[in-house]
Amino acid sequence: MLTREKTEQILRTADLMYSFETIEATMQRLADEITDKLSTQCPLVLCVMKGSIVFAGHLLPKLTFPLNFDYVQVSRYHNKISGGEIDWLMFPQDELKDQVVLVIDDILDEGITLAEIRKKVLDCGARSFYSAVLIDKDTGKVKSFQADFVGLTLPDRYVFGFGMDIHGAWRNLPAIYALPSEPGK
Ligand SMILES: O=P(O)(O)OC[C@H]1O[C@H](OP(=O)(O)OP(=O)(O)O)[C@H](O)[C@@H]1O
Ligand SMILES: Nc1nc2[nH]cnc2c(=O)[nH]1
């Protein structure tokens, strides 16, 4: 875990990428798009913990149609800034058969996490699979996964805030920040 001093220093040297106001406006647009597509289908909404907790908390009250809610918990970054193997910590497999599933995740980076979740959800008998991400990172590479609903895009920098962590910290920030760009990137 980072010390308090190091945690504060990270924020001081970070760049603000999106303010709370921009994120809130984006949330309404996403909710409208999801409503257009899914409002008659009583979807099962799955929040991908931990990073999506803030996204889910803001988006769900804007989805004013019948739905069910549960969560998946996976970790691929393990509080580090590059990804590895996926750890499956919670997966509600008994609930998925015949469901229209909407997975909501904070960030689509390499796309590995959501591709694996989609495979598992469909393998468990879901009728259809949709995904909504707050951030789609422009990695400059072809991804194995495209989201149905995308909030905002960001360049290929490690970001934190609004649910996303930096070494486990700063998920509580109301805006999205990026670590300083690496020279040459
Ligand atoms: O597209 P990918 O490159 O696979 O990365 C995206 C995933 O990375 C983060 O999760 P993380 O593993 O950091 O767990 P966390 O949600 O607990 O922070 C984020 O919440 C996404 O689920
Ligand atoms: N917090 C955070 N998690 C991620 N998972 C994949 N990319 C990122 C990122 O830029 N920030």
Instruction: Find the CATH topology.
Output: Rossmann fold
* Structural class by helix and strand composition: alpha/beta
Number of domains in the coordinates?
A: 1
Low-confidence stretches: none
The topology string of helices and strands comes to: HEHEHEEEHEEEE
Which ligands does the model contain, each kind named once?
1-O-pyrophosphono-5-O-phosphono-alpha-D-ribofuranose, guanine
Keywords: Glycosyltransferase, Transferase
Organism: Nitrosomonas aestuarii
Protein name: Hypoxanthine phosphoribosyltransferase
GO molecular function, one term: magnesium ion binding
3D architecture notes:
This is Hypoxanthine phosphoribosyltransferase. It holds the Pfam family Pribosyltran. With 185 residues, the protein is α/β, with parallel strands linked by helices. It has one domain: Rossmann fold (3-Layer(aba) Sandwich), CATH 3.40.50.2020. The chain is 25% helix and 28% strand. It contains 4 helices and 9 strands, in the order H-E-H-E-H-E-E-E-H-E-E-E-E. A 6-stranded mixed sheet has the order 4-3-2-5-6-7. The protein has a 3-stranded antiparallel sheet with strand order 1-9-8. It is globular and about 50 Å long. It starts with a helix and ends in a 7-residue tail after the last strand. The structure holds 1-O-pyrophosphono-5-O-phosphono-alpha-D-ribofuranose and guanine (GUN). Guanine binds next to strand 8.
